[in-house]
């Protein structure tokens, strides 16, 4: 039973993520997490003012239930299935992070430097998280999907637009970690 | 029961993404530094599983849970929106180390600063809706 508390290997995790998607397809649905952001915008009444949000978000309620379950799953996994041995990243990565002023994982999923509760006292860190979110929200809607909708669902069904989007994801990610990180951290 | 199956799939999704550490900022950074195979392995096996599953569905004409034919909806053809939107998304993905799924998962797990990311993501979605007609697609 020990494996439950360890980092799950990539081949097990990847297979299970694929099965989650196939399950949703079997339920007659699709796999796409960023659509929920649009639904949440619509639920807040934006549909009256902006045409893009004037859609039948109730037809997407199932997806919000998936997210609700995922939140609970995250809670269970972090609080009852974790271990101090988790998040063993490359030693080189840790050295590089230290140079950027970011703490090593030591079993944590997220660095305190960016996600510790102390960041609420740092306007810069608050801004970083909000800007990151804006880029994710804007980018995923502009590209018509995120990692789940394009990288997993789109590529598994051989969609050329998804390949373009995923290459775009990586170009953006490489620019951020290699060129922008040294400027902001 | 109808609702429960979606919640159950969601719970599995949340647990797998957490236990695989795909929700970890560190794993995303490590991936973009090409210092680990872990994330690439996860993404590739997920796609491979999807490819096999979708091919089986198509070739055997498997019906969905209600007995209706399964349709895989094609993405709209195009280029600009996928390249440009993709790059915007990638910048954000690397900066905060999470994509939309993990944002929710991590909030559920109790990482409160993630709420800032969620607010940002909702605002970003709103901005797209606002400027949609002015953007090249």
UniProtKB/TrEMBL annotation, chain A:
<feature type="transmembrane region" description="Helical">
    <location>
        <begin position="7"/>
        <end position="27"/>
    </location>
</feature>
<dbReference type="GO" id="GO:0005886">
    <property type="term" value="C:plasma membrane"/>
</dbReference>
<feature type="transmembrane region" description="Helical">
    <location>
        <begin position="126"/>
        <end position="143"/>
    </location>
</feature>
<keyword id="KW-0997">Cell inner membrane</keyword>
<dbReference type="InterPro" id="IPR007272">
    <property type="entry name" value="Sulf_transp_TsuA/YedE"/>
</dbReference>
<dbReference type="Pfam" id="PF04143">
    <property type="entry name" value="Sulf_transp"/>
</dbReference>
<keyword id="KW-1133">Transmembrane helix</keyword>
<comment type="similarity">
    <text>Belongs to the TsuA/YedE (TC 9.B.102) family.</text>
</comment>
<protein>
    <submittedName>
        <fullName>YeeE/YedE family protein</fullName>
    </submittedName>
</protein>
<keyword id="KW-0472">Membrane</keyword>
<feature type="transmembrane region" description="Helical">
    <location>
        <begin position="62"/>
        <end position="82"/>
    </location>
</feature>
<keyword id="KW-0813">Transport</keyword>
<feature type="transmembrane region" description="Helical">
    <location>
        <begin position="163"/>
        <end position="184"/>
    </location>
</feature>
<keyword id="KW-0812">Transmembrane</keyword>
<keyword id="KW-1003">Cell membrane</keyword>
UniProtKB/TrEMBL annotation, chain B:
<dbReference type="Pfam" id="PF04143">
    <property type="entry name" value="Sulf_transp"/>
</dbReference>
<feature type="transmembrane region" description="Helical">
    <location>
        <begin position="38"/>
        <end position="57"/>
    </location>
</feature>
<keyword id="KW-0812">Transmembrane</keyword>
<dbReference type="InterPro" id="IPR007272">
    <property type="entry name" value="Sulf_transp_TsuA/YedE"/>
</dbReference>
<keyword id="KW-1133">Transmembrane helix</keyword>
<feature type="transmembrane region" description="Helical">
    <location>
        <begin position="82"/>
        <end position="105"/>
    </location>
</feature>
<keyword id="KW-0472">Membrane</keyword>
<feature type="transmembrane region" description="Helical">
    <location>
        <begin position="111"/>
        <end position="131"/>
    </location>
</feature>
<protein>
    <submittedName>
        <fullName>YeeE/YedE family protein</fullName>
    </submittedName>
</protein>
